[in-house]
Amino acid sequence: MSTRPVTRRTGKPGRPGYDLDSLLAVAVKVFNEKGYDGTSMDVLADRLGLSKSSIYHHVSGKQELLELALNRALNALFAATTESGSTEGPYIDRLKYLARRSVEILIAELPYVTLLLRVRGNSAVERRALARRREFDAFVTDLVEQAVREGDLDPDIDPALVARLLFGTVNSLIEWYRPRAGADADTIADAIVRMSFHGLGHTSA
Amino acid sequence: MSTRPVTRRTGKPGRPGYDLDSLLAVAVKVFNEKGYDGTSMDVLADRLGLSKSSIYHHVSGKQELLELALNRALNALFAATTESGSTEGPYIDRLKYLARRSVEILIAELPYVTLLLRVRGNSAVERRALARRREFDAFVTDLVEQAVREGDLDPDIDPALVARLLFGTVNSLIEWYRPRAGADADTIADAIVRMSFHGLGHTSA
User: Does the model's ipTM exceed the 0.90 cut?
Assistant: First the structure.
């Protein structure tokens, strides 16, 4: 991809152009609104106020925009798995740490993670993203298994199911979280950890 | 919509045609694979092995197929809110009942609920569905508030957030549940109720 700056078709002096990051941000917004498969390069160009050829200065096409967006979300999530909170100490604490960090990442990278979680596997790019998601899920499942082994998690629920439910709860926030309306990342992370590990019941806190 | 039977374009004797239900089932499968906005009537006709005019015997178009599918999911969920398990007894039990019934409905009506949960509000049909989802969420939030009032739920978490997290966990199963692979509806419902109300911790069961 080129690093050449993109100028808007309207070309008004003083009006900022797009760098790759801001171009990607608009593309991801449109993908989330209309679905990736339902978004044409014409629609993208129209929303960006750019000609298609201006977009092609930056990326080879829609697929590359999708791959950049999905990797942004995946790289952030995988980075969290290598932090000391996820790799040191009792496994139950690593699991809580990763759940909490995932909430923060989902909120910080909301449009990118939203796109990632809606990927269906319709292309090689999407299938690579699904494979990396499975790798992340396997990391979480391993944390659950080790926490059971250490006696800190209920052994009667299948670890893979626990991993799915816990991160299902985390991931559900893409469906209802809206910036600047209601709870912040900390409040949501606290609530998820509290509900998932200690239960909603009044007496179990 | 007409109740006239649809015959396949291939028209081989003995080969079954589509009634509205089976036509809808195929359409919903395609919507889920390609996204509703990314699915044209031509694609639908091709997948059904029907001419477009054969589809138009049954429905006025893509929008009507979407509305029928979304209402099928919504009607099942709303029916559960009127069952005695959701309307009688301590509110904590009503909430557990509705969570459990929702798991059963999601699994029984998986493609329809999947479509419902991916609706973005791009048309009047989608906005009506979103309004009914908000009505369902309000019903759940009321159960949570009453359960807090009865002293059975942790009062320190915002009831609307509890409702979202609990049903976020339930709804997450559309992302990973596959029929005939792994846990059945009962096992999943048990795990969700156990995790959400009692916590995953070993000692809190």
Answer: no
CB-CB under 8 Å, B187 with A161 = yes
Q: Distance from CA of residue A204 to its chain's centroid?
A: 31
Number of structural domains in chain A: 2
pLDDT value, residue A159: 92
Find the CATH number of the domain harbouring A27: 1.10.10.60
Domain extent at residue A194 = 67-204
Query: Residue B72's domain is classified under what CATH number?
Result: 1.10.357.10
CA dihedral A164, A167, A169, A174 (to 10 degrees): -120
- Distance between CA B163 and CA A161 in Å, rounded? 21
Average pLDDT value for residue range A83-89 = 98
Question: Is B201–A152 a contact, with Cβ atoms under 8 angstroms apart?
Answer: yes
Amino acid at B194: R
Residue A26 has pLDDT above 80, yes or no: yes
